[in-house]
Task: structure prediction
Amino acid sequence: APAAPLVMGFSQVGAESEWRSANTASIKAAAKQDGVTLKFADAQQKQENQVKAIRSFIAQKVDVIAFSPVVESGWDTVLREAKAAKIPVILTDRAVNVSDPSLFVSFIGSDFVEEGRKAGRWLLERAAKNPGADLNIVELQGTVGSAPALDRKKGFEEVIAGNPKLKISRSQSGDFTRAKGKEVMEAFLKAKDKKIDVLYAHNDDMAIGAIQAIEEAGLKPGKDILIISIDGVKGAFEAMLAGKLNVTVECNPLLGPQLMQLAREVVAGKTVAKRITTLEGVFPAEVAAKELPNRRY
Amino acid sequence: MSAASLPVARRPSADRAVPRQFLQQTLLRPLAALALLLLIDLLCIPGFFALEIKEGHLYGSLIDIINRAAPLMLAALGMTLVIATRGIDVSVGAVVAIAGTVAALLVGGRLTMEGGLPVYVSHIPMAWALLAALGAALLCGVWNGLLVAGLGLQPIIATLILMVAGRGLAQLFTDGQIVTVYYPPFFFLGSGYLFGLPFALWLVLAVFGLTSLLMRKTALGLFIQAVGINPVAARLAGIKTAALIFFVYVYCSLCAGLAGLMIASNIKSADANNAGLALELDAILAVTLGGGSLNGGKFSLIGSLIGALIIQTLTYTIYSLGVPPEVNMVVKAVVVFLVCLSQSSEFKRLGRRLLRGKA
Amino acid sequence: MSAPALLSLRRLTAAPGFASLVTVGLLLALFGLGGASYAGFASVQVLLNLLIDNAYLLVIAVGMSFVILSGGIDLSVGSVLALTTMLTGWLLQVAHWPPLLVLALVLLAGGLFGAAMGALIHYFKLQPFIVTLAGMFLARGLCFLVSINSITIDEPLFVGLSQTQLHVPLLGGFVSPAALIALAVLALGIWLAHWTGFGRAVYAIGGNEQSALMMGLPVARTKVLTYAFSGFCAALGGVLFSFYMLSGYGLHAQGTELDAIAAVVIGGTVLTGGYGYVAGALSGVLTLGLIQTLIAFDGTLSSWWTKIVIGGLLFVFCLVQRLLALRAKP
Amino acid sequence: MDAAANVPQPVLELSGIDKGFPGVKALSDVSLRLFPGEVHTLMGQNGAGKSTLIKVLTGLYQADAGSIRLDGRPIAPRSTLDAQALGISTVYQEVNLCPNLSVAENIFIGRYPRAGLFGAIDWRLMQSEARRLLAQMHIDIDVRAPLSRYSLSIQQMVAIARALNISARVLILDEPTSSLDEAAVQLLFGVLRRLREQGMAILFVTHFLEQTYAISDRITVMRNGETEGEYACSALSRLALVNKMVGAPAESAQPLEQPAQAGPGAARGRPVLRAEGLGRRGMLKPLDLEIRAGEVLGLCGLLGSGRTETARLLFGADAADSGSIQTGGQAARLFASPRDAIAAGIGFCSEDRKHEGAILELSVRENIVLALQARKGLLRAIPAAEQRELADHYIARLGIKTPDAEMPIGLLSGGNQQKALLARWLVTSPKLLILDEPTRGIDVRAKEEIMDYVTALSRQADGQGMAVLFISSELPEVLRCSDRLLVLRDRQAGGEYARGELSEASLLAVIAGEALELAA
Ligand SMILES: Nc1ncnc2c1ncn2[C@@H]1O[C@H](COP(=O)(O)OP(=O)(O)OP(=O)(O)O)[C@@H](O)[C@H]1O
Ligand SMILES: Nc1ncnc2c1ncn2[C@@H]1O[C@H](COP(=O)(O)OP(=O)(O)OP(=O)(O)O)[C@@H](O)[C@H]1O
Ligand SMILES: [Mg+2]
Ligand SMILES: [Mg+2]
Result:
């Protein structure tokens, strides 16, 4: 048994959403349980801060570095420094785009494009029940240019392209927040040109905000307008219970235990899989009541 | 005395003429900008001005704009006074987060199920919760005021400290989670209606009325301007400059706190990380669009309100026109440039010269 | 204390550079604190990392110093930086232009962008805050018009510059070429500010623009040049940033304008213009960087405690700086 | 040489200049000729348009109509920079220098001596040159210190030094002497005479008749924005000059030489203020001072003798570090801030109206009521009607030339701003009014009338009149108005004299002569 505890440097994106906070909490709790000494650095949503943090982990000679990159690109240099210092790097939640794949040992996390596809597939099935009707979709995007926003849009569009009845008529950024989601939805609802049938929100928070706007417009969310969102936070399940949200695609933040186990294996010199996908489900409203008690975030 | 020998050009209704002149100078231009934006909406967005009665209140795009602009208007009111003293307060967004969080936490983050029925409970009586939230905002203001007026730190740095730490505090309270409120009376503040109009609007009007009353019935307005334009001379004239500066920061934080309550109430939850993000920039922009100068001095409360309306109308227009999100910023930038230019006398002069040159 | 000692102390504290001295002293104290608390902190490389990691910020802060000294403000720098990385990425990776041409072009573009804002500010008597805020939206928006995805740069020159480690003789440790460029820009800034007519005119305008005009100084040219210089520095900061990150991205460096302003003000420059030193930008940048490094070394702070501690350290820093400066006033 | 050379040609010729501002016609059909080798004085009442004319001439304002010719060629400068390039060097009325820059830089900015490969500024050379230039004007100060550290008079001298150092053919000085004392004025005149001999054309603005007659060759009189006429100095008597400025025959020929009131008979009351050992290290050595109700105490001294410092310490504008002040039967103390002093019934009209007095963007009305309002406190706002009444009263009483009370004070002429600031303190009806150079820049008639008005306020028969502490560099004025004179030398009290004890000459000797003795 190793005398000194494993030291892990972890650079988190920030605390920009509930999902992220749950992710952080899971990693911290798992580290504690596993007896891993965690050096945690919050990047406040800035890539440059993450690079600084990784440099400081290298200077502190930690055993393993893990991080959730703010953005895919731009990691070559600092990861090379880590490699030169012989510190293995694990990615969580989001992937990076580097010229040399050996710069990191493994990546655990969700596949945003796949999440978008799952959302799209759910809609396809739903539309199949009522093949005659055109469905007018509005989309609430995440922060312009951010990886989840880009990928969730891409995956969703890819799938619904298969059905010409499905059309996205409006798409606007709601910055992943409730307030913006509500604001944008309000504006969509006022535009009288087309009746809105479906709302696709890139995260639950925006969907929850939009639900309020829909109610205030005198419509019934979940019935008059189908609502699809991603993440699967507790609030979404509550909304589904109340019949206001139709489906949420899970994006699992509870990566802590998996990460710790992986770190141990990596440090012990075992070969590990390059890509580890987290287990994620799709939760339609029907299963919400059963699932809600299991939700920890 | 020599007055007799000097032919002083005294206009007959000098006292009347001047406020009108002032109005022209400071309010006409922002008003024109707002009108222009609305005109664009009228032409490009069908049904933009349509108002209907829904559930006993007015419903429509205009109402949305007012509702959405309300927190910004409040923040801009507070910011107006700070800017008039040649200061700046970048902590507005953080104070919004703190006030919203405190209120949401105290009012009720609990949904209990009794016999399959959801029951909403507030933790402590709502009035106390609201007072506590405003109290927290007040403390923020006192902190800013002490740093600026007491210690003499530069306003931007003094308030930057709270801007950074304040949001952290709010997140500390909530452990990084969004606190959802399940207590309907709380929602009235941000999405209720009174006499058919959003309650938020009435609240803004009340704060505005109170503030302008304060400016008109007391010498506060005069003193704030004097301190903003020439602090040395103001002190020599016997004005308590430090106390005055302290006051405006407290006032600004209180306005921000109220805005925070409104935002939290509107989305029925407190989002410590995102509530009021970059609101300070919008508030400053509103003040400047309304004719206020960052060099301190003359200010116009109504101007700032109009400035806030311009910003919100613009945002709403962008959403309604279906501008792709990646172009949002460019559109916003271009409009801000145009509004600014339309307010510049120099630009007008240039335009006139060009026109004359062509003719 | 004896009278002569007191006197010499007073003379020291009344010296014009005293505020900067205090800042340097505080910096050393902060570094000492880190060294005492965390293993591996008190190393040369940690110090050099401060320069490497903040090279782009230093360059921007130098440009910002001029703007603030002239009594203005430039909120567009962060966005111009992002736009530069984006343009650089696009021109290199998509359009495949030669790297040196790209460099020249983006630097020129940054300068022109600044000059355009300066011209609006001066000739149309618009407020710097509002014009540069619109500039900030514009530059950020233009990023997304280029591409909403991030662009990875793998052009050999950039990669080479990014990964070069220049070993520092005697001290040990290495710095990046970007850090050296930043120091060179700082030196250029100091020289411009204190030994050229342009720099002195900037100070004069910050002291009193009307007077500067009545003293026959070229106010229009100086103001436009000031913003052009800041735009240029922002673009250069963007170039350094693309060396640093090897990517172009529209969300890069959000809020950097506030960091730069804070750095300049912490370095002792007065926001209303006319007073301060360009060299102060370095101490401001190092202060902000050091605070972050301290937090990273601590490694136990949650997101929110990170913010609170940053705010707290900033407060303590400003408080001590201010109190010492107050004491120094006779 | 051809024949034309024999008839002197004006270097600078302005004709038909019109300039209007919203609501004000500042200049109409003004003409002016300036010949090489002459000192040409521009005279006129406050607000006559002198400064505006100069600003038009140097490109700060653009004329609505008219032409400016330099050597017969029309010019249209658009900025001071242009004017300088054309050989016109100007000192504007308010000191327009940069307070944050060093004294040396203020003299040399824009024309630095250069050295080295890249043409860097040669700071050493610049500083030694500045020292040399100022030494010529008998000023010995640290030229590396920021200008803001020095008093207005020093700043004025620096502004002059700057203008003189610009190699120019036309030198324009707008009221350069308003805050200089006699000695400094003589120094300046010495320099001007030398420049005149070198063929420079000098345009000079002043309100002092003595100075006009001492230096000028010709005089142009302006009235209400129009040129009244151009006269050879020798052909115009003082009385005629004053008449032309005012536009009506004046009653007395030598207004300034008459005593202001019927001698020292006015009733004197109880002490309003008694200061003991008032001082501050590096500013003023401990000083005793007593002022009684109904008394005008003149404070005299050379530049830098500590008069302004005394006033500031009395008023609490700077904190004293020794001594005490007793007012109206209250316990002795020191004022912590101007507020305290105002509450004790003291008013202080600063010498530096631009930085310490006027709130430029506020209206005349707001500037006038400011101190009264501050004393009443925030909550008891003076009703709008009352404010207007107060403002209108003093506008009429002091003859402030403004279209109306709502005009921003910054748009008034210099002298009229000064009057409005005086009004600010008069409305508070203080027990003690400290006036530091209150007549700076006020025209010759108004000066007399204002001081008469102020002294009349103090000389009330009941012994309850206002006490006045009067600081002025103009000895005749001090002598005329004061009941008692306190002389300051080297920042300490140098003697007290009763009214009539000293003539102007002997006062000068007391102020300067003994100071010289001390120095020796
Ligand atoms: N920018 C301006 N806007 C409006 N009115 C102005 C402006 N500048 C000057 N005036 C007006 O023009 C008139 C002439 O002013 P000017 O300053 O030229 O007088 P002056 O002869 O220099 O007086 P003084 O002896 O008091 O300095 C005044 O009535 C003044 O109020
Ligand atoms: N000729 C001079 N040479 C050097 N220093 C001078 C000279 N005249 C004044 N000073 C300095 O300028 C500073 C301020 O002087 P200031 O003129 O304000 O004094 P004062 O007593 O208020 O005189 P006044 O009221 O006439 O302006 C003092 O430090 C004084 O020593
Ligand atoms: Mg004048
Ligand atoms: Mg003086």
